[in-house]
Amino acid sequence: MRTGFIITPDVPEAEAFRDLPIGAPQLIPHLSGRPWIVGHWASDEVVRAQVGPVQVVVIGHCPVTTERLATLAARVRTPSDVDDLARALPGSFHLVVLIDDQLRVQGSVTGLRRVSYAYLQGMPIAADRADVLADLTGADVDQDMLATRAVCGGMLPSPLRDHSMWRGVYTVPPDHFLLLKRDRTAREVSWWGPPAPELSLEQGAPTVRAALITATADRRPPEGRLSVDLSGGMDSTSLCFLAAHHVPDLLTFRWGEAEEGNDDAHYATHAARCLPQADHLVMPQAKLPAIFTDPAAPADPEQPYLFSRTLARTRHTALNLAAHGSRQHIAGHGADELFFKFPGYLHRLLLRHPLTGLRHLRGHLAVSRWPLSATVRELTRGGDVASWWRAQADELAAPLADRFPPIGWGFSPLRAQPWVTDEALDATRRTLRRTADQVRPFAEDRGQHQFLLALRTTAPAYAQMGRIFAESGVRLEMPYLDDRVVEAALAVQLHERVTPLRYKPLLAQAMQGIAPPVVLNRSTKGDFAEDLRVGRRRNLAALLEVFAESELARHGLIDTGMLRGEILAPQADNTKNIALEHLLGCETWFRTATTRHTSSRRNDVRNSAS
C-alpha cells in the first residue's frame, strides 16, 4: 500500500514543502506552480483529470480511466457535487478535488485510507498519515489518548479509535471530507451514510458479486507475480477464484496450523486442486516465527498496532512472498467485519417482526450460549449510543460477566486490566465521557451500526499492515474493504445477511458458481488459539523484558509489578494474552513516538541554530 503524501492549499508558504524528508518525493503542483500534493506513490496508483477550473486526483486503487474521470469531473461545480463523483468510483482510494480556491480531500468510507490535518504556522495541511504531520509540526503525544489506548486496548471502538495520537493533529472521520480554503480555514464536512438495508438476500447477492468481481479484476502487477491468501476459509478462497479468472498463474499462500482441530488445511487443499495453473506456497509451523517473537520490535509509527503478536509473522510472510516473486498480494481482511453475525440487529427485528426475531434469538442463545438473563437485560435496556459510552466510563473498573451478549452499541464492554494505574483510569474516564458528549450512531439500526463500527475499528490497522508489507516491496490489497463492496453488502436486510444458523450467508450466496461449494458450505472457522499459547510460552522471557523498562510505566500508566504477576499467573483462557498483545502495541508505539519526537526536536534546534 502506497504511503506518505501531504496536501497544501495554494498559498506562498506551500513553497516550503518542495523539500520534504520523503524518499524519492514526487510533486503535483497547483496551477500557480506551488506544491499541491507532495509524497511518494507508484505510477499506477494515481489518476488525474482537469476540466476547466476543476482538478481531480485519485490516489490508491481505483480502476478508472482518465477519460472517465474527466467525464465525472465535468459535472462538478461545487465541493458538494463531488459526492456523486466519489460514489461513482470503484476501489479504495484518496480523492483530492480542487475547485477554484476550495480543496476537498477524503479517504475511503471504511477508514482504510484516512485523512489527517494540522496547522503549520497558521496554514492548514493535510496528509494520509497523522505521524507525518506530527513530525512536521512537532506535536506532542496526546497523553489522554495514550492512556485510553493502554486501558481499553483492542476493545476501544470508533469513533474514539479514529482520533489521532497527537495533540493538534486531527483525523477526519471516514464518512466526512476535509474542506481546505485559501483563507487558511479547514472544516470537516459529513458526506456519506450507509445505504438502507432493504434488499433481500436474493436481490443483494448479485450486487455484492458484481462489486467483488470489479474489485479483483485486472490485479496483475506491472512487474512480478500476483499472490493471494488461501487459508481454506470462505473469505480468502473466494478472492483466489475471483483473481484466478484474470490471473490463472497466481501464487497462493497460507500459514500451517498448530491447532490439531483446525481444519483449514482440508479445505485449502481441496481449493488448491481446483486451481491447477496456480502455484501453492504453504509456510509450515516450523518455519514461521512464533507468536510474540521479537516483541520489542516497532511496528508502524502512526498509532499502536492492533496485531502486535503476529508482527514477526507478517514481516516473514511479506519477505517470503517477495522472494517468490510477488509484488502484489490480495488478502481477505475485512470480510469478517462485513459479513459476520453481529447480533445488534435483534433489537429492531424483535420489534418489527417478533416471530422472526424470536427464532433468531433462540438460535443465538443456542449457538453462542449467552446467559438468558443477561441477554434479556441487554435487549430491554434503553438508551442511545451516548449512554453506552457513559456507561463504559462508569463501569470501566467493574468485572465483566462471562459470555456477555454483544448486542449493545458496542461489542464487548470496555474493561480495564488490573495492571493499569488510577491515573490511567481517570484519564480514560475523562476521554470516554467527552466522547459521549459528541458521539452519534453510524446508522439508525443498531445492527448496521455494529457492522460500520467493526469496519472503522479495524480498517486503519489493516492499513498499517499494508505498510509492513510495503517494506518488503509487496503491495497489500484488500478487496472486501473497497467502498462499493461495502455499500453493496450493507444494502442487504440484516436478518438475511446475519443468521445464527448459517455462516456468512450473503458472501456464500454471492460466490455461488465461483468458489467451490464445499468451501461455501463450510460451517467451521480456523482456530489459532494454540499458536497463541505456544508463542506466549516460548517468548515469555522476552515479553517480561520489554515491560521491565516500560515507557508506559515511566509515565505512570501501568504498574509493572502487577503486570508481571498477571503475565506469570496461570491463564484460564486467552483473554489476558490478547490484552497483553494490545498493551504491547501501545508500549512499542510509545517508544517509537518518543524517540521520533526527541529526534524531531533536536533537528528543529539544529535548523534554528544554522
Q: In one word, what is the shape?
A: globular
CATH class of the largest domain: Alpha Beta
* Helix content estimate: 40-55%
Give the full name of the CATH homologous superfamily of the largest domain. HUPs
| SSE class | alpha+beta
Straight-line N-to-C gap: 37 Å
Counted beta strands = 17
EC number: 6.3.5.4
Domain Asparagine synthetase: 208-591
Catalytic activity: L-aspartate + L-glutamine + ATP + H2O = L-asparagine + L-glutamate + AMP + diphosphate + H(+)
GO molecular function: asparagine synthase (glutamine-hydrolyzing) activity
Describe the structure.
- The chain has 610 residues and is α+β, with helices and mostly antiparallel strands.
- The protein has 4 domains: 5-190, Aminohydrolase, N-terminal nucleophile (Ntn) domain (Glutamine Phosphoribosylpyrophosphate, subunit 1, domain 1); 201-339 and 459-530, 3-Layer(aba) Sandwich (Rossmann fold), CATH 3.40.50; 344-448, no CATH class; 540-609, no CATH class.
- Helices cover 42% and strands 14% of the residues.
- The protein contains 24 helices and 17 strands.
- The protein has a 6-stranded antiparallel β-sheet with strand order 2-3-1-9-8-10, covered by helices on one side. A 6-stranded antiparallel β-sheet has the order 4-5-6-7-11-12, with helices on one face.
- Helix 21 (540-548) packs antiparallel against helix 23.
- The two termini are 37 Å apart.
- Residues 604-610 have low confidence and may be disordered.
- This is asparagine synthase (glutamine-hydrolyzing).
- Residues 208-591 form the Asparagine synthetase domain.
- Pathway: Amino-acid biosynthesis; L-asparagine biosynthesis; L-asparagine from L-aspartate (L-Gln route): step 1/1.
